[in-house]
Structures are given as structure tokens and as C-alpha cells.
Amino acid sequence: MITSRYAAPRAVRRWVADRPRLADVALGGGITLFDVATVLDRSPKPGVLGVALWGLQTVPLLCRRTRPCAVLAAMTGLYVVFQILSPIHGRIPGPFLLMIGVYGVARYASATASLPGTVLCLASTSTADALTGHWQSPRPGSLEPISVTTFVFFFTLAWILGYGRQRIDAHAARLRDLNQRLRDLNQRLRAEQERNARQAVVTERARIARDLHDVVAHHVSAIAVLARAAEEGMASGVPPAVEAAEGADAMQSVGLIARTADTALIEMRRLLGLLSFREQGLAPEPSLSSEHLEPLIGAATSAGCRVTYVADLQAQTDPSTGMLISGYRIIQEALTNVIKHAGPVSVRVTVRGNDSHLTIAVENDPAPPGHRPVPGSGRGLVGMRERVAAFDGVLRAGPREDGGWRLYAVLSAQASQPAEEKESA
Fold first, then answer.
1. Which residue has the higher pLDDT, 176 or 416?
2. What residues have CB less than 8 Å from 368, skipping those under 6 apart?
3. Taking a C-beta distance cutoff of 8 angstroms, is the pair 374, 225 a contact?
4. At what angle are helices 68-85 and 48-56 packed, to 10 degrees?
5. Nearest to 324 by CA among 287, 354, 350, 293
6. Are strands 306-313 and 346-353 parallel, antiparallel or unpaired?
């Protein structure tokens, strides 16, 4: 009920505020028609000049918003002319019409223009009253008769009200501007959050894609090498005396293939589980601990490689989880490349770490004669470079003088690493 009671007045005020020119016409025209009607109702009838001067005093109010100073000057001049000519006997304009002009100039003009204009209006009207004999001494405790005291009081009140409304409008405009800026800022923040969220999704998908590549490439390469060895063993002609031993080796290779495939499926399920919202039952991320590296080295050993692992991680070293995962994936990809490109050769893996750096070196001997490398996609080395770059590190990979291969990676736990440290690494 309260809402419906105030809804109509608010709607009317809003409708009027949206049409200021129409409001000025209604105000100026309405007051002018009312004043002219009251003058014409007098007896004896006033002359045309008196009616015109009386009505013209409020006509300038039509422009009180756009020309407030000119409106007050015009109303003041017409008031002075009317007082000097006195075209209507016994009819003297009061300060109330001029109050509207003073209010308008105080509200719509600057204080530096409205205040002198109000003082000039007060001086002009008071002087005109004094010169024409319309001024009378004020009575104590009363605003009557019309006197300078009356003009000062009403003009001061009108100016204060107009200037106060101007300040309120200015504060309201600043608040609207501030609210608009806040809305724009909120929109930009929401857009930035959406972009960050999309970028985070893309980054996470790229990380999972790299991990999937590492898992699939490592285990599938091992499966390919084992399958090829079993195929060659079964296809080659063997004497009956060693047929049983060769069959046992083939069965062992098939068993290794099955176990390697099972390990690949387990890791792939774990990585794909990261894409779902269910967090229970997920295996921990791999690291450089022995429980994670031993199966990795065991798979390379099953493929025929002779792996030597040396670790020198200081007890106080506590690298970030991301660095441990990246170190594990780098070793995994390096062993995968050895299995694919070099085959069953000797491999040396060295891991050293301190409070600020993690160093990984993987070296292998030249491939044996007649070895057929497994085709690769070329993404492995690119993925390793991205992992190292994420920790502001250094990656070097290339052939050795004896025909083998060496990979050297340094990962930094710090946010940035000076150029001279990178060069020394």
C-alpha cells in the first residue's frame, strides 16, 4: 500500500524532470496568466501599459534554466520600470516573483555569478522602492509593510535554497558518474575473470595433454620395443635344444608388455580423472621419490636398458610440487627417447637438488648396430622445454662425441633467475 501511495508522485516527478522545458513553460506561463487575470479583475480597469508591465515581469521565467542571469536581470529591470511608472494605482509588486528568479540564478548559475547578481537585484529594487516612495519603515517583529528588510530576508532564503539544490544536484551527478564507473569497472573485472578462467582451462588442458603424451609415449614405446623383441625371437630359427628357453623369453616379453600396458592405463585413468569433479580415489601426482621412480626405471630396464640412477637431494630441500612433477616428467620423457631412438643401451640418470635449483642429467650410449628407432612425434622435446621454461630454467639436449645422447636440465625454485646464473648453469 505504501509503495502504491508513492508510486504515482514519483512517476509524475520523473516525468516532469525528463521535460524541463515544458516545466518552465508551465511555470512562467501559468504565473503570467494568473497575474494578468488578477490585475484585469480590479476596478477600475488598468490600462494596457500597466497590464503589459505587470505580466511581463514573469515572462522571463520561461528561460530560467538556460539563461538564469539574464532572466534575473530582465525581471529586475521590469520591476524597476513598473515601480517608476506606477501604471496601476495601488498595485505594488512584492518580492515573491523575484524570489523565483533569485532561486533560479542560484541553482543554475555559478556562485560567482549568482551571488553578485542577487546583491545587484536587491540594491536595484530597494533603490527603486526608496526613490518612488514605496519604501516604508519596518515594524518590529513583522515583515510588513514591504521594506528592504523583507527583500533581504526573502532574497537570502531564495538564494540559499537555490544554491543548496545546486550542490545537491552536483553531488548526485558525481554519485551517478561514480556508480557508472563502478559498473564499468565491475564489467571489466568480470570480463577479466572470465578471460583468466578460460586461460586457466587452456593451460590446464595443455598440461594434461603434455602428461598424457609423456605417459603414452613412454609406455607405448616400451611396449613397441618389447613386442618387436618378442617378434624377432619367435620369428628367428632356433635349434631344438634352445627352443624351450627361447619360448620362455618370449612369454616373459609378453608378460612385460601386459604389465607395461596396465601401468599406462592406470596413469591415463589418473590423468583423465583430473578432468572430472570427483577428487576421491585419485592417485597422487608423481614426484622424484623412489616409489615413483622405481617403476619408471623398471619399465626402461624391462625394455633392455641398463639404467644407473644417482640421486643427491639434500635433506633440507623442499622444492615445490610442480617442480617435482616436472622433474619426474622430464626423466620419463628422456627415458622414453632412449627406448625409442637408442634401444637397449646403458643409461645414467643423475638428479641433484638444493634449496633453489633442481638439476637433471640423462645420458645414454650409442644405439647398437641394426637398431630400428621407433618413429616419434617430436613433441617430447618441446614439452620438456615448456616444463623447464615454466621454472625459468635451462635445457640442453644434443649428441655426445661418441654417438650417444645427453640431456641436461636445470629448474629454479625462484620466481626469476639472473642471467649470469643461467649461464653458469
1. 176
2. 343, 344, 345
3. yes
4. 150
5. 287
6. parallel
User: What does the pLDDT average to over 330-336?
Assistant: 89
Amino acid, single-letter form, for residue 378? G
CB atoms within 10 A of CB 148: 18
Give counts: helices (H), strands (E), the chain.
Answer: 12, 5
Distance, CA of 17 to CA of 99 (rounded, Å): 21
CB count within 10 Å of CB 72 equals 27
pTM higher than 0.85: no
Classify burial at 224, counting beta carbons within 10 Å of its beta carbon; exposed 0-12, middle 13-18, buried 19 or more.
Answer: middle
Taking Cα atoms as reference points, which of 256, 253, 405 lies closest to residue 341? 405
Please tell me whether residue 37 adopts helix, strand or coil conformation. helix
Question: Among 148-152, 174-178, 199-203, 251-255, where is mean pLDDT lowest?
Answer: 251-255
Distance from C-alpha of 394 to C-alpha of 409, rounded to nearest angstrom: 6
| Alpha carbons 157 and 218: distance in angstroms, whole number | 90
Q: How far is CA 124 from CA 81, 138, 290, in A?
A: 11, 19, 102
Measured between alpha carbons, how far is 64 from 74 in angstroms, rounded to an integer?
A: 11
Question: Residue 157's pLDDT is what?
Answer: 92
Task: Average the pLDDT over 337-345 and give the result.
Answer: 86
Cis peptide before 145 (omega within 30 of 0): yes
Single out the residue of 224, 250, 223, 220 nearest to residue 235, CA to CA: 250
The mean pLDDT value for 281-299 works out to 76
**CA–CA distance, 411 with 392 (Å, rounded to integer):** 7
Q: What is the pLDDT of residue 410?
A: 93
Amino acid, res. 131: L
Cβ(55)–Cβ(32) below 8 Å:
yes
Maximum Cα interatomic distance, the chain, rounded to a whole number of Å: 151
Can you read off the three cell numbers belonging to residue 47? 490600462
What strands, in cross-sheet order, belong to the sheet with 306-313?
Answer: 306-313, 346-353, 357-364, 405-412, 394-399
Q: Assess contact for 82 and 39: CB atoms under 8 A.
A: no
The end-to-end CA distance of the chain, in Å, is 79
Retrieve residue 17's grid coordinates. Answer: 524532470
Give the angle 197-199-204 at the CA atoms, nearest 5°: 95
- Amino acid symbol at 146: I
Q: What angle, rounded to 10 degrees, do the helices at 243-273 and 290-302 form?
A: 140
Query: Does 421 score more than 60 pLDDT?
Result: no
